Amino acid sequence: MDIPPYIGYLLVAVAAAGALYWFANRQVFHPMKHPEGWWEVQDELGAEDVSIQTRDGVRLHGWWSPAEGSGLAALYLHGNAGNVTHRGSHIQAANAAGCSMLVIDYRGYGKSEGAPSEPGLYADAEAGYEFLRSKGYPPGRIVVHAESLGTAVAVELATRVTVGGVILEAPFTSASDVAGRILPVVGLLLVGGSDTESKIGLLAAPVLVIHGDRDGIIPFDMGQAIFEAAPEPKSFWAVPGAGHNDIVESGGDAYRQRLLEFYESLGAGGSG
What we know:
By secondary structure, the protein is α/β, with parallel strands linked by helices. The chain has one domain (about 5-265): 3-Layer(aba) Sandwich (Rossmann fold). The chain has helices at about 5-25, 40-45, 90-95, 120-135, 150-160, 175-180, 185-190, 195-200, 220-230, 245-250, 255-265; strands spanning about 30, 50-55, 60-65, 75, 80, 100-105, 140-145, 165-170, 205-210, 235-240. The N and C termini lie far apart (about 80 Å). Helices cover about 40% and strands about 20% of the residues. The strands form two sheets. Strands 2-3-6-4-7-8-9-10 form an eight-stranded mixed β-sheet, with helices on both faces. A two-stranded parallel ribbon has the order 1-5.
């Protein structure tokens, strides 16, 4: 039996849409599993291995780096690629500014079990927060610090739990907005979720937004839009000459100073 031409066109269209959907969503997560990464930097950082179980039973791996004499701790939520081993510069900067830091690998990243998903990352962030609570840090002494993809996770977490402050590096308005920049029109239809712009107004903690003015991955104007949508108190730092992955390096000493000033603005200081 011959297939009518319009049926053939429909099948081709469905197949093409499926391929585009697969491609667009593949861009969201790029996990790097152990042993890939710079695991040798752990000794240089003096970071401790930690194992954390999520509420849905996934075992996560992370690095805990306490700052001597500090009563403030940051939960660091990284971007969509690499693993904990690529966040050494953030750990060093936070510690130098007087804040302890926990960096977790999402499910499917580094030494963590499972496979990444948007709901899974939200559960992972909650588990990291509960780890800091179990170490004796009260909610007001916990800062959620995130980059890129992690900023959406951080904002979602901070709408559900009490935190002392939120630091967002290279945040984006929504996943569909980013996809729309990659695949105009079509991307908006294929990728959803991670809608930070609609959630950030619910935050009850001070916010610091940091964005490189030469970011070629997450447009600078998205960082500005997130800042505009955030409630007071808030501050914005445009890092001159910084791209997407070199904010700490481009910021240099000024990056550590910005962290220190933010910590002090929370009334926790670097040595609370």
